[in-house]
Amino acid sequence: MATNRIIQRLNAGEDTSSNKRQVETFLVENPAGSGAPLTIAKGSVLAFDFSVTADSDKFLYLTAADTGTATSKCAVGVAASSYTIAEGVTAKVEVVIAGSAEVLVATGTAAGDTLVAGASAGVASKYLNTDVLPVFAQLVAANSSGSPALRLANIYPQF
After folding, report:
1. Domain range enclosing 107
2. Segment 101-130, tens digit of pLDDT
3. Is 37 helix (H, G, I), strand (E, B) or coil?
């Protein structure tokens, strides 16, 4: 699971212009009896799933970050790609935990805003001075589209 971010590339204008992006693999479960496939959109904000039974698995499984759910409030990163997970299946999911990535952000955000897990599952929102959850990213491009949308952000490592 562990990778490092020591080497920096200076290839201006290329997708690999900097090696500060860190992607790790975690597990996401769509439990049997859920009734439908589980879809994780690219850029969805993910959190550790503290609702899993085994303590050893609480930092292995992820779920959509959501401030309304006590067991998945603190964002650790964003989905690197889109995933559809069949009912009763546990899948490996690549998650950007540091560096540049597209993040699903709420409307009404501006470039430079810091982001936290939002009230809508998987959607980041602007940090407010009343928030008690940790900031996990800084937005590079605004979202004034009227609905959640993918925008470039810098993800801060949480661990």
Report:
1. 22-155
2. 999 999 999 999 999 999 999 999 999 998
3. coil
